[in-house]
Every structure is written in structure tokens, then in C-alpha cells.
From TrEMBL:
SMART domains xrefs: Glyco_25
Protein known as: Glycoside hydrolase family 25 protein
Ranges of biased composition (kind: Basic residues): 51-75
InterPro entries associated with the record: GH (IPR017853), Glyco_hydro_25 (IPR002053), Glyco_hydro_fam25_subgr (IPR018077)
Listed PROSITE patterns: GLYCOSYL_HYDROL_F25_2
Species assigned in the record: Mucilaginibacter straminoryzae
Region span, Disordered: 48-75
Molecular functions (GO terms): lysozyme activity
GO biological process entries: carbohydrate catabolic process; cell wall macromolecule catabolic process; peptidoglycan catabolic process
Transmembrane spans: 6-23, 83-102
Length: 342
């Protein structure tokens, strides 16, 4: 829906600029026509009948009129330049509003802003150079979440990386999506990460336009949580064409079935905006994992009963070739242990 509205705005802006330019060009072309047609044809024989018209003032008068035309010619000379400026402005605006480039442009501005503001530490966060991100202060337990996008991971290097007591303690690994898609790296990640001493949990990417029950059954068929694992996670980020009511209904079916089979309360993952818009007040009994980037604090979201906070999507981790999401756990070590499957 957002991309359609942006494209509509682009078409309207481009059409308006073209209309203004064509009107100006047509009006400029009509000005010299009015001046040339100002002499009626009846005056031609009158001028021939009076041979006395040798007076110099008349051609001088014409020369004065020609001098008056010079500004008009200058305006015409400036028109192509101003037209190109307008075309360039429209072209730049179309790029800025394009859904294909908006995410890269917005990320570029946000990265530039963070670069300007990362001159030093503050009371809310500090820069960890080995991870290449700022990490909020006051949290003791840190972790990552991965999928096929990170490729083949060396989990031993991930576990060994540390800076000032900050290291990867847990990892949420993508397992399934929808009713039939299995992440191609799930089996390997699910096997190798615990060998490196990392506590793991498996998450399912939820499709709101699909059956919540069938998605739960597919997830449970591919993931068998064990004692000591983190609870199952459902990742809900979009409506996928469903209405908010339909989305909440199918999500409830998913949560109830997973809870019934695992005897564990599943965790809900969502962006801060999506949660506040569609989920707040409907699933408050479930542990919450919020995604909210490029800020030192969650602000108003701090009043919600959240457990995990995904505060960055650009962490550098040894053993992983691509950038990674970085998370913190809200509580202490004791509350973290209580959250794990008994």
C-alpha cells in the first residue's frame, strides 16, 4: 500500500511540473506574435503614399522598441536553464520517493547522523569498536539472531568474541516461514551453535494471510525444543494482505498450539511501530521481543513488558561475513535462566 501511494505522488508531481512548463513556453511564444501583428495591413499603402517619411525618429522609435524586446529574448534564453533545473528537481524527488531507493537513502541519512553523533560515550550507550555499533548501557546479557542471510557461520569464533565483558550469550535462529518454508541454514545453525556454548531459540516468520494452525504444526514438525533452550518465537512484522482482526485471530491460533505442545509460553517478536499499532493490548501475557533501531533508549516502549530488545541490525561479529542483528536481554542472569525451557 505504501509503495502505491508513493508512485501516485510521483505521477502527480511530474504531471504538474510538465503542465507548468508547457503553459509558460506557450505564453512566451505568443508574446512576439502580438507585437508583430500590431501593424494592421491597411497602413501599408498609407506609408507608401507619403514619401516624406524619411524622418529619422521613426526608425529610432523602432530601435527603441527593439531594445524593449531584448529583455524578452533574455527571458527566453533563461527558460531552457530553468526548465532543466525543474526537470532535475523532479527527477531527484522521484528518486527520493521511489520505494526501490527509499530504504537505502533513509539508511544512508541515518548512518550519517549516527556517525556525527558517535563522537563519544554518553550515559545511555557507548561505542564498542570490535562490534562496530553502539550498545545501550545497563544490560549484561547480549545476543544475536540469524537466518540464511548470514550464510555459513563459524560459531566457535562467534562465541570467542568479547569486548569489555560484552559477548554473544544467546542466538535466535530462523527455522520456518509460512506453512512450508524451512530456512536452508537452520539445521546446521541449530546443531553447531549449542556446541559453542551459545543458548539458542528457534523462530518462525509468521504469514498473517495463512492459517495460524498449519504454520504452528509446520514449525513444531521442524523444531523440537529441548530443556535449556529459549522459548519458541513467532516473528510478526506485516499484515500480508490480511486485516488486523484476521491477523490477530491466526496469530492466536499459532500461539495456543505451540504453547500446548511445548508447555512453554512463546515469545512474540515485532517492530515497535507494528506492536503499538496492531498488537498492544491483545497479547500482553506473552513475552515480548521488540525491534527498534538507532536509539539509546526505547522511550515510551519501556513501559511495556518487553524481555528482549533488538537495538541494531549492523553489528560486526567474527565468524559471520554479513552484518547481524544485535539484542539485549532486559533482566539479569537469574531471570534469564527462568525464561529458558525447564
Amino acid at each position: 500500500m505504501a509503495s502505491r501511494s508513493i508512485i501516485y505522488i510521483q505521477i502527480v508531481l511530474f504531471g504538474y511540473i510538465c503542465r507548468v512548463n508547457t503553459v509558460k513556453r506557450s505564453s512566451d511564444n505568443q508574446k512576439p506574435r502580438k507585437r508583430t501583428v500590431a501593424v494592421p495591413p491597411e497602413l501599408a499603402p498609407l506609408e507608401t503614399k507619403t514619401p516624406k517619411v524619411k524622418s529619422a525618429p521613426k526608425p529610432r522609435a523602432k530601435s527603441t522598441t527593439t531594445t524593449k524586446r531584448k529583455p524578452a529574448k533574455k527571458k527566453n534564453q533563461h527558460n531552457p536553464f530553468s526548465l532543466w533545473l525543474k526537470v532535475a528537481g523532479v527527477f531527484l524527488l522521484l528518486i527520493l520517493l521511489s520505494p526501490l531507493y527509499y530504504q537505502y537513502i533513509s539508511r544512508g541519512f541515518s548512518n550519517a547522523w549516527r556517525w556525527l553523533t558517535e563522537s563519544g560515550d554518553n550515559k545511555y550507550s557507548r561505542k564498542y569498536h570490535s562490534f562496530d555499533i553502539r550498545i545501550p548501557n545497563g544490560f549484561k546479557i547480549h545476543g544475536i539472531d540469524v537466518s540464511y542471510a548470514q550464510g555459513k557461520i563459524d560459531w566457535q569464533q562467534v562465541s570467542a568474541m568479547e569486548e569489555d565483558s560484552v559477548r554473544v550469550r544467546f542466538a535466535f535462529i530462523k527455522a520456518t516461514e509460512g506453512e512450508s518454508h524451512l530456512d536452508p541454514f537452520f539445521t546446521r545453525n541449530w546443531r553447531e551453535a549449542p556446541k559453542a556454548g551459545i543458548i539458542c531459540g528457534a523462530y518462525h516468520y509468521f504469514r498473517a494471510n495463512k492459517s495460524g494452525l498449519w504454520q504452528a504444526l509446520f514449525y513444531l514438525n521442524k523444531v523440537q525444543p529441548e530443556r535449556g533452550d529459549l522459548p519458541p518465537v513467532v516473528d510478526i512484522e506485516e499484515l500480508s494482505g490480511a486485516t488486523p482482526t484476521q491477523m490477530r485471530h491466526e496469530l492466536q491460533r499459532f500461539l495456543e498450539r505451540v504453547k500446548k505442545d511445548t508447555h512453554t509460553q512463546p515469545i512474540i517478536y515485532s517492530s515497535l511501530n507494528f506492536y503499538q499499532t496492531y498488537l498492544a493490548g491483545h497479547f500482553d501475557n506473552y513475552p515480548l521481543w521488540l525491534a527498534h533501531y538507532y536509539t539509546d533508549r526505547l522511550g515510551a516502549a519501556a513501559t511495556t513488558n518487553w524481555h528482549f530488545w533488538q537495538h541494531s541490525d549492523e553489528a560486526h561479529i567474527k565468524g559471520i561475513r554479513h552484518r547481524v542483528d544485535f539484542n539485549v536481554f532486559k533482566g539479569d542472569s537469574l531471570s534469564f535462566e527462568k525464561l529458558r525451557i525447564p
